[in-house]
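User: structure tokens for this one?
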Amino acid sequence: MLDRSFESYKARLLKNSKMLAFANFIGMYRWSETIYEYAVGSLRLVHPVSWLVIIGMFFMGVYIQGVPDTVKDLKSSIKDDTVWY
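Assistant:
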């Protein structure tokens, strides 16, 4: 049977994504628990490497989909998926 606790869900996420595991290792993510006991990671904006990731996402987005869509996507991503602490 699958363990559905916060720690087991977080461990599964980190096991499936090496980049996420590295970002978690250097402290770029803050983990919180949902009401259903799932783990949700949010990018910390105070971490200096986070800004490199956001700048990289911006340039890749501009290359792939253009400036207006990239700005819209990053604005919603920063609003919904990041924290300052």
